[in-house]
Amino acid sequence: MSAPGYPGGPHQPPYPMTQPGGHSVAPYPSAPGYGNPHQAPPPGFMDYNSGPPPVMYQPSQVGPGPVPGPQYGGPPGGISPAPVGVPAAVAVGVPPGLEYLTQIDQILIHQKIELLEAFIGFETNNQYEIKNSLGQKIYKAKEKNDCCTRNCCGSLRSFDMKIKDNMDREVIRLIRPFRCVSCWCPCCLQEMEVQAPPGTTVGYVKQDWHPFVPKFSIQGPNKETVMKLEGPCFACNCCGDVNFELKSKDGDTPIGRISKQWSGLLKEVFTDTDNFGIQFPMDMDVKMKAVLMGACFLIDFMFFEKVGEANQRSTVFS
């Protein structure tokens, strides 16, 4: 006795059976919902094409044509960038362009070397590359002010800094007014406003008065203190990193860190190009991550910016 559905004798047609019209189909009946685009799938069937993917990738500039993948045997790739024009899932309450910050807990900031500034000492606008932990560029930042302000006011100069993504869209704007930096003038200390997107204030970085230690308050849009930032008494990276500890509002619980990283003897002596690392919790509000980026740039200008023959500041006294 033959199995159900299969040919039972030598005179039956071979599998698959030919139907009227010349179409060959399997002798098994089709399950309801499969193969019919106008019919809903049965219960328990997972549709892998429904809805956008939940993971958002870092923005990246992709040229025309297909993107070549990694070759066999080559080095493994990092995070795959999303092509331009592909819509990504938008998180609620996240400023546009900052979606990628929700996936990372570390940022690297590298200041670009300016040849004109290195050779003749003429101060130019600072430029930075902002990268993830894999070294992939996710943003770029450039200072904007005039030549007179840069070369006359030095590291105390006011500026606007535009932070753009890899598609050249401005996603963050930093505004630093001209302020005093010495602890002898507690009424006019350093401050920076952070906007994301430009025109919408998400927070402030404000220097707190202290006679010995550089301290800052990380504030929200209404200037309410959210976190504290505290540096060493002597902020000088002599063959080592300089760490500014990020703490909770009460100043007791460590949360993260902003580190000025040692770049090597030649770079530290002959240029003012700096490397920074920012560490924060993965689930931190993405707006506060943007404010911490502003705090990093403010620290760079206050303690590690060298203009002409002027020495870098290392304490709150100078």
TrEMBL record:
Keyword Calcium: yes
Region (Disordered): 1-52
Family: Belongs to the phospholipid scramblase family.
Highest taxon, organism lineage: Eukaryota
Keyword set, alphabetical order: Calcium, Lipoprotein, Palmitate
GO annotation, cellular component aspect: plasma membrane
Protein name: Phospholipid scramblase
Cofactor requirements of the protein: Ca(2+)
Keyword flag Calcium: yes
InterPro entries (alphabetical): Scramblase, Tubby-like_C
GO molecular function: phospholipid scramblase activity
Species name: Labrus bergylta
Function of the protein: May mediate accelerated ATP-independent bidirectional transbilayer migration of phospholipids upon binding calcium ions that results in a loss of phospholipid asymmetry in the plasma membrane.
Record-linked Pfam families: Scramblase (PF03803)
